[in-house]
């Protein structure tokens, strides 16, 4: 243990001279940016400790800003320190480690940033602005929470997503859903979790999730997540499944065959890529690049013209993530319908025809409708609905996008490929399809779970069935469906669960 004060006062001058000119020292720890709080420490001691740390390769910031990762204080009055920190109006306070001087002295002694332990942490004991009341009312169902695109707990939810993906790739459903549910709860919070204590009344946080959170609160990262991210199988399966048309099963088959890269796959003559996968590889760079809101709007104009040229009274809606207000998405989703019953079934082939003539259709997979009203309700939930739909890759010209394309620097083609999904339900199923395709996936999962568990109803993209009354409930708007379920209406931009 390092018992003595960091440097005896008498040695102050000589040690200060040893540490050299501030700002000239070699930086050894790029990821750690310290800030020493002057309160209680005093200006001259702070200046001395700053130079000492810099001489050992640490970055010490003069000003407290969002780049700081470690705040070090000698203030033993936790509440006054935290009050001051909160008044500093930082965006990133939740990601900062607020540490006692003992962490600093341990680190100076070791000549490197030592692992943060609970004993080093100065925990926030102040009641958080909206924590206590908000916590009590957090529902276990995402459809009873309002979740915008602003995520105050990204460090935790990103880690949970990696853990969920690991289970998903191994086809282990339970823990995968548990991590997705936990992430969804944290995403809905209007405040950032700064201590495990603040999570005690939150639903859906199990032992495993809490231990990951504790690790992140203490060390700023999760070693389990880092292990997964550096795992060869995980990396390869993520790479392979990032290709349009390649699912976890195919990715695993390729991995077990010893393939590790796209070149390996493309060079293996025994692999027969299907049409979707061939397009996936052909347009990989474009499709794996996020689609911007401006690009989604430009595509809406294209589809809108096509649809209305065919059926003037057609209804077209942008759905999926863009309807929820996301700035970027992996594809652009549309729902189209017509008031004339049955006409919606012929609409998509006609749209495809028109896009082909325009020369902008790079890939299409059309699925004719298998929807049959007399077979409702579907008692088993199916991921895919039975409406007519198509999965497209379209060529989008830069000239059609306000502000230009979202493409790599130096890409001078003037166009890019974009994934587009189009689904065409009959008009009387429109509200159900719109609700189902708006997402998020977690929001949809919980809507269906809520309907089943709390209302004895079955909900899917086609219909809502009341098991008690043994009848299908009609709806022309999403609000009708929420009302049938006895739920407060949640706006699309609040469904980013
Ligand atoms: P997406 O996969 O497009 O997700 O499905 P997203 O929320 O728009 O996110 P990004 O931005 O593209 O990544 C949109 C919604 O459509 C539903 C999904 O459940 C999701 O909520 N969906 C998708 C279906 O209901 N059926 C399908 O066949 C595909
Ligand atoms: Mg989408």
Automatic annotation (TrEMBL):
One of its GO terms (biological process) is DNA modification. GO terms for molecular function: DNA binding; DNA nucleotidylexotransferase activity; DNA-directed DNA polymerase activity; metal ion binding. This is DNA nucleotidylexotransferase. It comes from the Eukaryota. Its EC number is 2.7.7.31. Mg(2+) binds at residues 331, 333, 421. Belongs to the DNA polymerase type-X family. CDD domains: NT_POLXc. Signal peptide: none annotated. PROSITE patterns: BRCT, DNA_POLYMERASE_X. GO terms for cellular component: nucleus. InterPro entries: BRCT_dom, BRCT_dom_sf, DNA-dir_DNA_pol_X, DNA_pol-X_BS, DNA_pol_B_palm_palm, DNA_pol_lambd_fingers_domain, DNA_pol_lamdba_lyase_dom_sf, DNA_Pol_thumb_sf.
């Amino acid at each position: 243990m390092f018992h003595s004060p960091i440097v005896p006062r008498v040695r102050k001058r000589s040690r200060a001279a040893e540490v050299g000119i501030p700002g000239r020292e070699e930086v050894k720890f790029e990821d750690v940016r310290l800030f020493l709080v002057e309160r209680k420490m005093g200006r001259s001691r702070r200046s001395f400790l700053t130079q000492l740390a810099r001489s050992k390769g640490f970055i010490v910031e003069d000003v407290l800003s969002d780049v700081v990762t470690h705040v070090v204080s000698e203030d033993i009055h936790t509440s006054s320190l935290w009050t001051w920190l909160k008044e500093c109006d930082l965006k990133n306070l939740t990601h900062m480690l607020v540490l006692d001087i003992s962490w600093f002295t341990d680190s100076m002694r070791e000549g490197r940033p030592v692992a943060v332990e609970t004993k080093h942490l100065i925990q926030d004991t102040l009641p958080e602005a909206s924590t206590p009341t908000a916590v009590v009312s957090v529902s276990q169902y995402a459809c009873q929470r309002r979740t915008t695109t602003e995520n105050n707990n990204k460090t935790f939810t990103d880690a949970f997503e990696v853990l969920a993906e690991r289970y998903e790739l191994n086809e282990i459903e339970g823990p995968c859903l548990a991590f997705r549910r936990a992430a969804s709860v944290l995403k809905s919070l209007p405040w950032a979790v700064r201590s495990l204590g603040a999570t005690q009344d939150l639903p859906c946080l199990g032992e495993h999730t809490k231990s990951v959170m504790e690790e992140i609160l203490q060390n700023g990262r999760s070693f389990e997540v880092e292990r997964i991210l550096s795992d060869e199988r995980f990396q390869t399966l993520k790479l392979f499944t990032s290709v349009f048309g390649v699912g976890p099963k195919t990715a695993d088959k390729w991995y077990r065959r010893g393939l590790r890269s796209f070149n390996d796959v493309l060079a293996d003559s025994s692999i027969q890529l299907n049409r979707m996968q061939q397009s996936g590889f052909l347009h990989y760079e474009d499709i794996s690049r996020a689609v911007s809101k401006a690009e989604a709007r430009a595509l809406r104009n294209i589809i809108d013209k096509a649809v209305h040229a065919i059926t003037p009274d057609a209804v077209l809606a942008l759905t999926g993530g863009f309807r929820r207000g996301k700035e970027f998405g992996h594809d652009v989703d549309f729902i189209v319908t017509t008031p004339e019953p049955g006409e919606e079934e012929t609409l998509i082939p006609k749209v495809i025809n028109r896009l082909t003539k325009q020369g902008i259709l790079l890939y299409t997979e059309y699925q004719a409708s298998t929807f049959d009203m007399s077979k409702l309700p579907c008692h088993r939930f199916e991921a895919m609905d039975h409406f007519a739909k198509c999965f497209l890759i379209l060529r989008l010209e830069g000239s059609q996008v306000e502000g230009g394309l979202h493409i790599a620097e130096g890409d001078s083609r003037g166009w890019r490929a974009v994934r587009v999904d189009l689904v065409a339900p009959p008009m009387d199923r429109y509200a159900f399809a719109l609700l189902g395709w708006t997402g998020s996936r977690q929001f949809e999962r919980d809507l269906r779970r809520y309907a089943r568990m709390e209302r004895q109803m079955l909900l899917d993209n086609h219909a809502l069935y009341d098991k008690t009354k043994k009848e299908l409930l009609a709806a022309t708007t999403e609000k009708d469906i929420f009302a049938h379920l006895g739920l407060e209406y949640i706006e699309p931009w609040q469904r980013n669960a």
